[in-house]
C-alpha cells in the first residue's frame, strides 16, 4: 500500500522542510496526508499507484500455459498485498502471476543449456562463467554488474529458465526466492535479443552446437516488451540488481534491505530501525493472528529498497515506469508465485512482496527520523505480512477487498502503542467533512488525490480498527483483516463475526466514538 505524507509536509521529491507526506501492489504509504501502493498498498498518505501502500485492484494472474502478457493483475494490488506511500493508505500491489514459459521442443536445447549455465554460475559464484555468453562490450559489462549484485542477496532459490524464441528475441524467466522473505518463488521476466539459427537469414548465425558450447549470443537484455516496443510492467522488471550498478545489501533477522551504493549511508543508518519495526510487526501479528488455513500463510520476512530518486522509485518493478503519485511515500507490491502450491495445483498465490520507500520523505529527513522510519516501516511491512494470504483460483472473478481495511490495518500496526499520535492524526477531520460512514472501500475513492481527504481516509480507517480492538480485542481485528485477504466477498459477515453487529450498527457506534473524540466536526 502506499504511505502518505503527514499533514502539511512537502511531497516526496520536492524541496522543502523535511517531513513527509505512504499499495498490495497497494498504494504506498501516504504522506500525512498520504495515501503498498503498485505492489499495491496505499498511501501513508502519498498515493503509490494508488498512493502509499498497495497498488489498487488486484488483477487476476495470467492463465497458466500462455505466453501471455499481463493480466490486470493488480487488481490485486489488492490493497492488501503490499504497502507503499507514506501519508496515505498503504496499498498492496500485486502483479499478475507470470505465465509459464514452456520451451519449444524444437530448437530449445541450446537455450536451455545457456540458462542452466547462468544458474550454475551464480550458485558457484563464477563471474566469468556467468557472463560468458553475453556479447562483448556494454552488454557483457552490464551483466558483470548484475552478477556482482546477485551474489550479495541470500537466495533460497535462483535459476533461469528459457522460453520461446521469436524474431531473435528469447523469453527468459529468473525464478527466485529470497531466503527468509518469500513464501514461494516468483519470476522476473526478461527478453533477450539473441543470435541463433532462427534469428537471422544471413546464414552467418551461430549453430545450435556453437550456442550450447558457449558462443557470445546474447546481444541485449531487457524486460518483456509489448507490440509498441515498450517494456511491460507485469514482469517484475527491473529489479534493483538490474537498475543499480552496485548494490549495497544489509541482512537482518526477517529483513533484507538494500540501496544503490551511493545511498549506502542512508541504508546503514536506517537498517536496524527497520529491523526492529519488522520484529515488532511480526510479534504483534503472531500474537493476534487466526489459525492458518493451510493454503496460504502470512509472510515471515521483508524485502525493502530505499531510493531517493523519484524517477528510479517509480521505475522499480514497473518496466518503463509508472505515473508519479506525489502523495505517496512508500509502497508494498505483492508478486504472484511462479507456480501453484503442490498441494493445490489450481490455486495461484502471492509468493512474496517488495517494498520501496522514498528517502526524501520527511519520515527519513526530519529530526525525529527514527520514529518516522519506524512508522513507515511498520505500515508497509504490515501490508507485506498479509499480502501472502491472498490467492486466486479459476473460479475467482473480481477483487472486492475493501481499501479501508487494507490501509487501516497497515496504519493500525504502524501506530501500535502510540495512542497520543493516533488521536493527533484525527485533527485532519477538521479540514474535511465527516459523514459518519466508514472510509471508502473502493480504491478510486479511498486514494483521493486531495491530500487532506486521503489523509482523513487513512486516519479514519485505522481508527475504525482501533475502535474494534478496544471493544472486541486485537484478535478480532486480525481475524477480520485476514478474512478480507482470503475471502473478500464475505465483508459483511466478517464485520459481524468480529463485532457481533451488522455493518450499519458497527458503523454507527464507531461514528459516535469519532464525534466524541474530535470536537467540532464539520
UniProtKB/TrEMBL annotation:
The chain crosses the membrane at residues 71-92. Residues 1-66 are annotated as: Disordered. Keywords: Membrane, Transmembrane, Transmembrane helix. Residues 31-52 have a biased composition (Low complexity). It comes from the Bacteria. Residues 1-30 have a biased composition (Pro residues). This is Uncharacterized protein.
